Amino acid sequence: QVQLVESGGGLVQPGGSLRLSCAASGRTDSTFVMGWFRQAPGNEREFVAAIHWQREGTYYTNDVKGRFIVTKDTAKNTLYLQMNSLRPEDTAMYSCNAGVFWGQGTQVTVSS
Q1: b/e burial code for range 58-68 (CB count within 10 A of at least 16 → b)
Q2: Which of 9, 50, 92, 93 could potentially form a cystine with 106 if both were Cys, beta carbons 3.0 to 4.6 Å apart?
């Protein structure tokens, strides 16, 4: 079992930045990839970014390339998502994923 707890969401103006965190606990030693997904009201959940937990390598959906940065601190068992140049269309519930395990999510709202 892996437990995931997200934090760092909130309300931000267009063009602003937020940094999300995902604290992992439990059997993280078998984790290969951790990632972020988001779901806006009325939409399906979509992939945002991911990172290899045991080696180097990151992945992004085209929409966030150049704006979002996914990083990790394996010593702290924490995943991060630095979100810059935020747009209203980035508004969604952002969830952390590790294989079959999901966090509860943290809400990001981009609005003036």
Answers
A1: eebeeebeeeb
A2: 9
